Amino acid sequence: MKKITKLILSNKDVQEILGKGESTAYLLIREIRMKRGLKPYAKINVEEFCEHTNMSLELVLEQLRKIT
């Protein structure tokens, strides 16, 4: 049975995936929300993150598996 990975990304997840600091990760999440017209407290899912950063879904999911 495959391990289920997270669907919603936190600031810490973005930090780990990109290897960036807390404020950079926060600003990226904020930018994604603004470009998508989401509310400031809206959650960001993996697909939205991949589309914004042009990273492949497989790569991001692989990184999330390593984190959790």
Description of the molecule:
- By secondary structure, the chain is mainly alpha-helical.
- It has one domain.
- Helix content is 62%, strand content 6%.
- It is built from 4 helices and 2 strands; from the N terminus they run E-H-H-E-H-H.
- A two-stranded antiparallel ribbon has the order 1-2.
- Helix 1 (11-18) packs across helix 2 (22-36).
- The protein is globular.
- The chain starts with 7 loop residues before the first strand and ends with a helix.
Query: Tally of extended strands?
Result: 2
- Helix proportion range: 55-70%
Helical/strand content category = mainly alpha
Question: What would you report as the Rg, rounded to the nearest angstrom?
Answer: 12 Å
Based on the structure, what is the oligomeric state of the protein chains?
A: single chain
The largest pleated sheet is described as: 2 strands, antiparallel
Choose one word for the global shape.
globular
Short characterization:
The protein has 68 residues and is mostly helical.
What characteristics describe this protein?
mainly alpha, globular, 68 residues
Topology:
Elements: E1 8-9, H1 11-18, H2 22-36, E2 44-45, H3 46-53, H4 57-67
Antiparallel strand pairs: 1-2
Helix pairs in contact: 1-2
